[in-house]
Amino acid sequence: MNAVRILGTGSYVPPKILSNHDLEKMGLDTTDEWITQRTGVRERRMADPDITTSDLAYEASLRALDMAHLTAKDMDLVILATITPDTCCPSGANWLQAKLDAPQAVTFDVTAACSGFIFGLNVAEQYLKNGSVGNVLVVASEVMTRTLDWTDRTTCILWGDGAGAAILRLGDEGHEILSTHVHSDGANGQDLLMPGGGSKTTPISHESVDKKLHTLNMIEANASFRVAVRHFIDSIKEAAAFNEVAVEDIDWFIPHQANLRMFQSMAKTLKIPMEKFYVTLHKYGNISSASCAIAFDEAVRDGSIRENNLVCLPVFGGGLTWGSALIRW
Ligand SMILES: CC(C)(COP(=O)(O)OP(=O)(O)OC[C@H]1O[C@@H](n2cnc3c(N)ncnc32)[C@H](O)[C@@H]1OP(=O)(O)O)[C@@H](O)C(=O)NCCC(=O)NCCS
């Protein structure tokens, strides 16, 4: 009765596709070949200008609620993981609450960049285990394409838009979250940075806009690649050791989807066959917090994850943040 269970998952990506060839056509100094070889990304989804993060979250939430046979009115807590909320005040979760028509729920955002979904699960786990809530909706949603400098070829090729969700409850029925683990390192977290928009640079000025401070900056992308791989590996080992299972006993690895070469490095170091990695980054790119939530939902829905499978979701993101969830399906 004390286990945290997943009752349903859902995801949504906007229909508009932006391919590597489209980026070439936009005049970006890049090629489909370069992007595919260095990242594994072939195309990404892009929300229309009038679509917000809470709109994508709403669609993913409805799908998760449907699978769980519950409604928004059954939710006691709604946690939205995002670094691209509709507005900072109100929170993205509050915009979502209004769309879901769930006035009974407590709602707030969790900001942990690409690790956000696992941080959200971790927070939900604490609320559930202390008995203060019954049903929790955890959603991760991002409109990353609105944060990009489309002339910065190292950064803008990587990102896309979308949302993933899960419904959690304590009990005997559903799929068990065996553990979640989260970590942060603020002292080394400035390499993936959106300098503008916060108290550091407000009020917004012509100068801050001219300097593109409101777009995502990736400094030392090479170094962040290596740090990411190290933390992914540590997170997998931590989840396995905590639950006293061997890494080779894990059936599926569904990491944050940043770069296919990161998956290959993890596979090589941990001696995991590449077939055990569930990949969506070729079609969606990096959707920050939503990446592994979407991949997880797609793996559930296409039957890749089977009953009793052991599924590991390792994540790494700006901040720095990292961690994992281990799930017995
Ligand atoms: C960004 C990333 C794909 C770059 O790949 P890389 O193999 O490290 O490439 P480098 O940065 O060494 O650049 C190699 C060359 O390609 C060029 N280049 C960069 N982006 C390019 C692009 N889109 N198209 C063509 N050339 C590009 C660079 O300018 C550089 O040229 P130079 O040798 O003349 O200076 C890779 O470092 C990465 O994925 N890093 C992790 C970033 C990340 O995902 N962080 C968040 C984790 S949540």
Please render the helix and strand layout as text.
Layout: E1 4-12, E2 17-19, H1 20-25, H2 32-39, E3 43-45, H3 53-68, E4 77-81, H4 92-100, E5 106-110, H5 116-129, E6 135-143, H6 153-156, E7 161-170, E8 175-184, E9 192-193, H7 206-210, E10 217-218, H8 221-242, E11 252-253, H9 260-270, H10 281-284, H11 290-301, E12 310-317, E13 321-328
Parallel strand pairs: 4-5, 4-6, 11-12
Antiparallel strand pairs: 1-7, 1-8, 2-3, 6-7, 8-13, 9-10, 12-13
Bound molecules: coenzyme A (COA).
Structure, described:
With 329 residues, this protein is an alpha+beta fold. It has 2 domains: 4-174, Peroxisomal Thiolase, Chain A, domain 1; 179-328, Peroxisomal Thiolase, Chain A, domain 1. It has 11 helices and 13 strands. It has helices at residues 20-25, 32-39, 53-68, 92-100, 116-129, 153-156, 206-210, 221-242, 260-270, 281-284, 290-301, and strands at residues 4-12, 17-19, 43-45, 77-81, 106-110, 135-143, 161-170, 175-184, 192-193, 217-218, 252-253, 310-317, 321-328. A 9-stranded mixed beta sheet has the order 5-4-6-7-1-8-13-12-11, with helices on both faces. Helix 4 (92-100) links the parallel strand 4 (77-81) and strand 5. Helix 3 packs across helix 4 (92-100) and helix 8 packs across helix 9. The model has no long low-confidence stretch (mean pLDDT 96). Coenzyme A binds next to helix 2, helix 6, helix 8 and strand 12. Coenzyme A is lined by residues 30, 34-35, 38-39, 114, 153-154, 157-158, 192, 218, 221-222, 224-225, 228, 258-259, 286, 316-317.
